[in-house]
Amino acid sequence: MLWKCQAVLDQRKEFVRLARQGGISIQELCRRFGISRDTGHRLLKRYEESGEAGLEDRSRRPSTSPRRTDPLIEEKVLEVRDRHPAWGGRKIARRLTDMGLTDVPSPSTINEILRRNGRINPVEARKHQKFIRFQYENPNDLWQMDFKGHFPMAAGRCHPLTVLDDHSRYALGLRACENEKKETVQDQLVSIFQRYGLPARILADNGSPWGCCGNPLETYTSLEVWLMLLGVRLIHGRPLHPQTQGKDERFHRTLKIELLQSRRFDSIQECQKAFDGWLHVYNDERPHEALGLSTPSSRYRASLKSFPEAIPLPEYYESDVVRRVKKDGCICFKGNILKISQAFAGYNVAFRPTQTEGVWDVYFAGIAVAYADLRDSDPIVQSVRHVSEQVSDMSPV
After folding, report:
1. pLDDT value, residue 386
2. What are the DSSP E strand ranges found in the chain?
3. Exposed, middle or buried by CB within 10 Å (0-12, 13-18, 19+), for 310?
4. pLDDT tier at 268, thresholds 50, 70, 90
5. Strand ranges for 141-255 from DSSP E
6. What percent of the chain shows pLDDT beyond 70?
7. pLDDT averaged over every residue in the chain
8. pTM for this one?
9. What are the residues whose beta carbons fall under 8 Å from the beta carbon of 9, sequence distance 6 or more?
10. Are the beta carbons of 71 and 94 closer than 8 angstroms?
């Protein structure tokens, strides 16, 4: 996988940041980024010698602005605000500090500068309240995934696929897709997994292609089965509760405000180019309210679990009773025809007895997917739906 999806300089910065965090060997990180070990070590050496400037192809203006006079700081405040019209005093103050400015004004002073220069709408100045937040303890414990509503282009429509780390709010993927099909999502996830490794869980809603909303006869999808084979558990938000995926929903709102509502695009390629540029700002520059005004990239670490070259087949215990799922999603077990799910067609599942005589748990790749009650003449098979019990926040970012 060559340098792609983001500008080359942003890719180099991300590689250096992940490499300096440790935990993953340089060889493995180079493999994920599709570069040679020599190139990886050369980038690290250039960074150690010259910082981020050493990663550029040619000299550019430095991103830091040390020791400005007061009029220049005010000019810098307005410059940041004009680049990011949705940012307020707190974000701008943090961003100026991160850029290396000294004597940065307080957020209230910055808001006064913005007000004085006609950059603040008084109606926007009233929403400040505390939120009760839930987040997973570590990066890659949970990712949130969803499609933002599609929007028209000059030719066709763009369906933005978003993937967000729950702990750090780091946006692992913002991909411009031509459709919302399973094959499209799986291709995009492969490239994300190759870069960042595998999470423990992914949270998604109940819609297609990861959910079976609208099909009461099916509980699992082929995309979900693929994730199970990788050891990634897909969990679903409760129906009609979009706040369960509050962080991704809020990310969508920020994307709309800061990029989409002011742009028109001609093609998928133009969308992706704009997404890549904005994603770098969101991850690496934009202070995040829920992170104490730190950036998402300062909180994120790549997963130690790498994407495998070959998808493993499920393995079971010797004591398991193993059956192959047929094309129609059915299996034969103890003289009964049991419907599991067509998503498992062609794969083996395992039956394990419970403490209740005649009741069996059904496992696939180490995950309980159903239970079978054979005590009556009409057997009952009930799928085990993995639904999130946590309510994520929709706090300001």
Report:
1. 61
2. 143-147, 151-152, 157-165, 171-177, 201-204, 233-236, 321-324, 330-333, 336-339, 348-353, 359-364, 367-373, 380-383
3. exposed
4. very high
5. 143-147, 151-152, 157-165, 171-177, 201-204, 233-236
6. 85
7. 83
8. 0.72
9. 55, 56, 57
10. no
